[in-house]
Amino acid sequence: MKTLAQRLTEEREAANLTQTELAKKARCSQATIADIERGRNSESAKLPSIASALNLHAIWLKEGIGE
Length: 67
Description:
Elements: H1 4-14, H2 19-26, H3 30-37, H4 47-53, H5 58-63
Helix pairs in contact: 2-3, 2-4
């Protein structure tokens, strides 16, 4: 099963977004995106807004559950 870091990285790259571009769309810092993609932060309060910016369900992004 893939990790949050792997899912986020794959979905961001599939959307052809840089970390900075995604951060801007999600209204968070690039460092937040980088920390999640490195596996340093799996409990960010910004996950719902990041998921929304990628047109994903937050629970899928966080836990891989659902679509």
